[in-house]
Amino acid sequence: MYQFEKLDKKLLGEQIEDELMNYILQEPVEIGQRIPNEFELAQRFGVGRSTIREAVKGLVSKGILEVKRGSGTYVKSTRSMDEDPLGLSRLQDKYKLALELFDVRLMLEPEIASLAAEFASEEELVQLEKLCDETEKMYLGGKNHIPKDIEFHTCIARCSKNRVVETLIPVINTAVLTFANLTHRTLMQETIETHRAIVNGIMDRDPVAARCAMVMHLTYNRQALVKKYKEHQKKKQ
Fold first, then answer.
1. What are the distances in angstroms from CA 209 to CA 100, 114, 171?
2. In which band, very low, low, confident or very high, does the pLDDT at 222 lie, cut at 50, 70 and 90?
3. Residue 218, SS3?
4. How far apart are the first and last CA of the chain?
5. Considering the entire predicted model, what is its pTM?
6. CA angle 23, 87, 186 (to 5 degrees)
C-alpha cells in the first residue's frame, strides 16, 4: 500500500501519475498489455478512484496509455512525449520506421559531424572522446551500451552549436534506440571503429573526415538493418 500526503488534488494526481508510470516500468507492464482497473489501482496506491482517473488521463495525454471503451486501459508506449516528442516510437512497423529514420540520419548527421569538427569546444572534445571510450568499454564488456551510445550522438549534435540541430536530438535518439532494438549486437567491431573515426575527425578539426566517418558509420548500420529486414520478411511469408 502506498502512502501519500493529502495535499491539493492536483498535486496528488501528479504524484499518482508518476507512481503509475513507475509501476508500468518496474512491473513491467508490456506495451499492449492491460493495466489493473481503477478499483485495484486505487487500493494499490491508497487513493480515491477519481485520483486514479486523473493520473490515467495524464498518461493518456502523454501517449503512454490508451483507453479502450468496454475493454480497459492499455499501455501504448513506455516513452513519454518529452522523450519522443514526434511520437515515432508509437509507429507499429519498426523495420520501416528504422529505415526511414536512417534516410533522415543520412541527410543530417554527416553534416552535423562536420559542424562539430569546426565548432566543438576543447571541453566538448574531451567529453566526446570520453563517451567514445565508455561506449566501447561497455560494448566489449557485454553490457548495455545503448544509453551511452545515445549520449555519444547527442554530444556530437550539441558540438555543432546549431540550435535547430539540438531540437532534432530526440529524432536521432529514437533512431539509435530503434536500430539497436532490431539488430542487437551484430555490428560491434564496425561500431567501435567508426565511432573512433568520427571522434578522430572531429578532434582533428577536419570536417571532411568527420563527415565521411559518419557516412561510413551509418552505412554499416543501414546495411545490417536491411539484412535483418529481409530475414524478417522471409519469416512472415
1. 25, 8, 24
2. very high
3. helix
4. 49
5. 0.66
6. 80
